[in-house]
Amino acid sequence: MQRRQFFLITAAAGITADFAEGVSSETLDDKICLFTDHLDDIEGITFMEVARMLEKLGVTGVDLTVRPGGLVEPDRVTEDLPKAAEILAHYGQKIRMLTTNITTVADVGDILSTAKSLGIKYYKLGYMRYDDMDHWQERRRRARKQLAELIALGKKIGIHAGFHNHSGPIVGGVVWDCLDLVERHDKEWLGVFFDIAHATIEGGKIGWNIGFRRARARVTMGAVKDFVWERVNGKWTTRWVPLGQGMVDFDEYLPLLAETPFPGPLTLHIEYDPGGKTKAERLDRALEAADRDLKFLRKKIR
Q1: Contact assessment for residue 102 and residue 126, using Cβ atoms and an 8 Å cutoff
Q2: CATH says 3-301 is which class?
C-alpha cells in the first residue's frame, strides 16, 4: 500500500471512530498542542526550528497556521504542508489541526484536500465579520449559507471544521451565536472550537460558564489563552498575557473541560509578544513563553 493511500484510509477511520465513540482515550494533557501564530512573524523560521522547539517543550502536536502570513502560505500548501508534516514526524510530532482563513468555498483551494491526504483531521475556519451591526440578521443569513457550503465540501473531503467563538464583531463571537450556527450541522463535520478567553471577554463572570455548559455537547476542539482589561486612551480594551496572569478562571474552567468528552486537540495560544529583536532572540523568547504557559497549564490539569 502506498504511503498516501495509507494516510487516507487511516485518517478516515480515525475521525469516524472519534465521533462514533464521542470521546477520545487521550487526557487533556495528551491533547495539548502548540499554536504557531506567535512564530509567524519570525523572519526565516524553518519547520526544523519549529520541530526542535516542540521537542524541547515536550509537545508532540502542533496547530499550524495555513493562511496568508502563516507558516504555510495557502498558495504553497501542496509543497510546504507535506514538507512540514515530514519534518515534524521525524521528531515524533504531528500536525493536529490547521488554522485557516477559510470562510467560503472559494478560499479552500488545495488546503483541505492536502490536509486530508496527510491524515490531518481538523481545521479551524476563518472569521466572518459583522461589518454593519444594524444588519446583523442579514449577515447571519449569509454566514449560514457560507457555512453550509463549506461543511458540505468538508464532508465530501472528509475533514472536520471548528467554529471559533472569537470575541468582537465576529459572527459566532458570542457563544449562543456560535452554537446556533453550529447546531444546524452534523457534529462529525462541524463543532465548536471553544476558546475560554474569548468566551470570558464576551461572557464576564458567569456568561462563559453558562455558554460552555450549553455548548459542551458540540465542543470538538479547544483553545487556551489569557487576557486582562485595561484602559488605553480613554477606552477599555483587552491585552493578552501569560496564562494565570489574567482574568480567565482556569480553576473553574479546566475541571469542566476535563469532564467534557471532545475528540480534537487543545491548542495553546501565545497571543502576547514574547519579545526579542533578532531571530535568535525571538526564538528564545518564544520558547520561554511557551514553556512558561505549558508548565502552568499542565500543573492546573494535573
Answers
A1: yes
A2: alpha beta
Contact 63, 99 (CB under 8 A): yes
Question: Which residue bears the cell 502548540?
Answer: 34
DSSP of 114-153: HHHHTT--EEE----B-S-GGGHHHHHHHHHHHHHHHHHH
**137: exposed, middle or buried (Cβ count in 10 Å: 0-12, 13-18, 19+):** exposed
Segment 169-221, tens digit of pLDDT: 999 999 999 999 999 999 999 999 999 999 999 999 999 999 999 999 999 99
Helix, strand, coil shares of the chain as percentages rounded to 5? Answer: 50, 20, 30
Which pTM does this prediction carry? 0.91
Query: 53-57: long-range contacts at Cβ-Cβ below 8 A with a sequence spacing of 24 or more?
Result: 53/283, 53/286, 53/287, 53/290, 54/88, 54/91, 54/93, 55/91, 55/92, 55/93, 56/287, 56/291, 57/287, 57/290, 57/291, 57/294
CA distance 225 to 165: 13
